[in-house]
Description:
With 77 residues, this protein is an alpha/beta fold. It is 32% helix and 13% strand.
Amino acid sequence: MSIVGSGDIASVLKDRDGFIFFASGVSNSQETRESEYQREKDLLMIQDKGKHIVYSDRFVCFILAQDTPSTKWKWNN
């Protein structure tokens, strides 16, 4: 299957040949454990690079104003 994740976003996606829909991640925006962000990055990096990867996230630009580990990680990765 080419849908990675099991949350709200992943549950409404439809599989499509040649694509990987990456809808997995750290769901708690207040998460402080670096290991949770590293887990997401590691999972993304092992995906088939021969397919188009569509990365899905609830993240929006105005959230960058918040100084949290979640926004810092998303901005830098």
